Amino acid sequence: MEQSNHVADSLDALRQVYQNCQRCALAASRSRVVFGHGRPGAPLFLLAERIGDMDEQTGRPFSGPAGDLLMRILAAPQVEIPARDVYLSNLVLCRAENNRSPRVAEMRACRERLAQEMQLVDPQVLVILGRLPWQHVLGGKGSLERQRGWYRTPEGRPAYVTFNPASALHGEAHAIRRKKLLIYEDWQAIAAAYRELSGD
Ligand code: SF4
Fold first, then answer.
1. DSSP 20-31
2. Per-residue pLDDT averaged across 135-153, rounded?
3. Nearest CA owner, ligand 1 atom 2
């Protein structure tokens, strides 16, 4: 499944390069490639783990309940980040059978695309949503809850690690409430940096 890496000069060109991608085994389980969503120059690049069923149906990442919750968080008091300032993408662009997490080889196969996508968007902050992107991009280990917060990517870009909103959708009511509170705290910190960087 080896394919040459083409350096694209725009997000649309990159999308074209990957629209029929066969670089990893996920090509066999997807019904379509779900490319990142947003505009070049968006100050925040949100990186999650994988494509869900609803994303595959709509062709947009974060189309389901986790995306709805994310939009409510972005609009919440003391966050108030416009959706146009957020770019959404995933470690891999293709859905796996049974919605399992991507394997290391699959994330590696999609890494060059992610690096190019990040360069083309050129955000001020990378927001890492969840354990797998934290591990894959920053080598994170241990408790994500205890180690949420600011990092730098190997390229020197500021990065904030927080939970994926999807993790606050299931479980006991008190655990959901607590997780939502932690996510809200994180997004207040991200919003403060966003406003500082954008000169507000
Ligand atoms: S997950 Fe990425 S590398 Fe794998 S087939 Fe899809 S686009 Fe290609």
1. T--SSGGGGT-S
2. 96
3. 110
pLDDT band at 7 (very low <50, low <70, confident <90, very high): confident
6 inside domain:
no
- The answer to whether the CB of 120 is under 6 A from ligand 1 is no
Domain-located, residue 5 = no
Question: Quick check: CB of 144 below 6 Å from ligand 1?
Answer: no
Domain enclosing residue 66, as ranges: 11-197
Would residue 133 count as lying in a domain?
A: yes
- Say yes or no: CB of residue 66 within 6 Å of ligand 1: no
- Integer Cα distance of 157 and 154 in angstroms: 7
61 belongs to a structural domain:
yes
pLDDT at 2 over 50: no
| Distance from the alpha carbon of residue 200 to the mean position of ligand 1, in angstroms | 38
Using the predicted structure, report yes or no on whether residue 170 has a pLDDT greater than 50: yes
pTM: 0.94
Instruction: Give the model's confidence band at 3: pLDDT under 50 very low, under 70 low, under 90 confident, else very high.
Output: low
Distances (CA, A) of 138 to 12, 25, 53, 91: 27, 24, 27, 13
- Ligand 1 pocket: which of 24, 90, 113 to mutate (most atoms <8 Å of CB)? 24
Closest CA to 44 of 91, 100, 86: 86
Q: Is 18 in the pocket of ligand 1 (CB under 6 A)?
A: yes
